[in-house]
Amino acid sequence: MALMDDAEHPVPELWRAKFAEIAAALAAGDFQLCKSRVEGVEPVDRETAEHISANVAAYGDRLAPLDEATWHRSIYRWAGGYWEVLVDLSTVSEPVSDLTLHADVCEADCSRLKIKSVHVP
Prior knowledge:
The chain has 121 residues and is α+β, with helices and mostly antiparallel strands.
């Protein structure tokens, strides 16, 4: 169950598979999630996808499917009306990189999600 307080919490188990699907799509270069439809994820607009692509390219390492170690650093917190989620992505060289997926989860069961960005905070 997702908590609705001001504290940061580890990403709930229930949400992790969806974020793993998103990370796999990004690792495949599908920054708009057009080819890899992930249920409940809002379409990523072209401008956001281009921004994500540029940030990944600038990082200098290719994305990879999520390593289990990412869940030790990834967090969420209640933002009043939705949960802000930060998932540290995996790269070919790093099981947990500094590149972070920023998303908003609108339903406690993670059935509605919006990708905001991928960048180094």
